[in-house]
Amino acid sequence: IKGLPIAAGPEVFGLHANADINKDQQETDTMLDSLLAMQGKSGASGGGSRDLLLSDLAVDIRQRLPPVFDIEMTRFKYPVDYYESMNTVLTQELVRFNALIEVIHTSLAALLK
């Protein structure tokens, strides 16, 4: 029993591995909704304004957010090759991740204005 994983993967339930991504997204949405709901209640009790709490949270997220990846360096270090198809996947995913990081930076900057 000690050798079993703590959390079962989606494959155990007959689901695709990508179902785990959807579950994580739903859990994140639920957590943030709960935080916002609690925040509104705590603001009325003198614990701080909602804007101040959101501002602090945005600054904290901005500080922990990684910088964008250098795509050219990645292409140099992991060149596209017929026998190394994961290099292509890595580059494509880094482009997508960089776009996500840019959106988060833009959203946080707009929130802090």
Annotate the secondary structure layout.
Blueprint: H1 19-44, H2 50-64, H3 71-77, H4 85-112
What is the string of SSEs from the N terminus onward?
HHHH
Main sheet attributes: strand count, strand direction, barrel closure = none
Summing up helix and strand content along with how strands pair, one would put the structural category as mainly alpha
* Oligomeric form: single chain
What Rg do the Cα atoms give?
A: 20 Å
Categorize the overall geometry.
flat
Low-confidence stretches: none
**Mean pLDDT score:** 84
Structure characterization notes:
The model has no long low-confidence stretch (mean pLDDT 84). The chain has helices at 19-44, 50-64, 71-77, 85-112. By secondary structure, the protein is mostly helical. 0% of the residues are buried. The longest helix is centred in the last third of the chain and has 28 residues, at 85-112. Helix content is 67%, strand content 0%. Helix 2 runs antiparallel to helix 4 (85-112). The termini are far apart.
